[in-house]
User: Fold this.
Amino acid sequence: MTLKIINKSSNPLPKYESAQAAGMDIRCHIAEPITLAPMERKLIPTGLFIELPAGYEAQIRPRSGLALKRGLTVLNTPGTIDADYRGEVGVILINLSGEPQTIEPGERICQMVIAKHETPEVVEVEELSDTERGAGGFGHSGRK
Assistant:
């Protein structure tokens, strides 16, 4: 499978940081640092435009280090980029910490995971098959 990328930034192309990494790091494409106040969110440009094959999506996910150390995360996690989207990849970052956080030009802000997906035929029915679990959810199996 090939992922075609137009890179309008001066950053390197996204890459996997280890041999078995599932996600490739994405950098921001900003001229000046951006500071996010506590609970503030902003759409951060990447300068990347991608072309995925049909049947694939790109998922935008937080970087664990940014989330743990600085409280910065991707708001609509995971964000989905559809195979027919050709606009710039933008990342909605939010500062969940109690203090302002500054994003520097070229900083790695998220990771992108490429995933195959199915497009099912949707059929309306009157009932669903029974299972042992049934409609149990939202903690039905207990705490331990």
